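Quick one:
INPUT:
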């Protein structure tokens, strides 16, 4: 398995700056937030541990650890999405390409209380899914789940949304 290291983060930040940075929701200068970088590096190192036995557990750990920890002044959900997906792509996984309706149904199945926020963004199906999953995770205390239950659900949702490339 290929693990992300500190040097890979520059690529992740660049994706956010180029594609996910808007006037209303500005991404921080991640590199200048040294404390956040150190905490993020620790998450990357912990993902290599045996406590996360398979790919889906590891990607869920990365996603949860970054999204919920608020290492940076802004852009934590975006960073969780990008780091998790780069980890997946580097390990030969690709989007399963379900429809927006199928993703919405799956999110509702796992988080029945979740009501998707209204947005004027016209998301592609995969973008829709990860955007809403990041919001659910960031607000996970609302869903009254233990950390273990949340980790299990997020790992299962990654199993649904990502498939090993042929």
């Amino acid at each position: 398995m290929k693990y992300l290291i500190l040097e890979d983060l520059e690529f992740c930040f660049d994706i956010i700056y180029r594609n996910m940075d808007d006037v209303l929701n500005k991404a921080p200068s991640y590199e200048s937030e040294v404390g956040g970088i150190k905490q993020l590096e620790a998450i990357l190192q912990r993902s290599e541990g045996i406590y996360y036995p398979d790919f889906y557990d590891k990607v869920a750990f990365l996603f949860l650890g970054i999204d919920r920890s608020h290492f940076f002044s802004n852009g934590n959900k975006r960073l969780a999405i990008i780091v998790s997906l780069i980890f997946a792509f580097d390990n030969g996984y690709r989007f399963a390409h379900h429809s927006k309706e199928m993703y919405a149904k799956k999110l509702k199945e796992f988080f029945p209380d979740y009501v998707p926020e209204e947005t004027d963004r016209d998301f592609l199906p995969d973008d829709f899914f990860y955007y809403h999953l990041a919001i659910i995770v960031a607000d996970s205390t609302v869903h009254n789940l233990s950390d273990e239950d949340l980790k299990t659900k997020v790992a299962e949702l990654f199993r649904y949304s990502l498939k090993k490339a042929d």
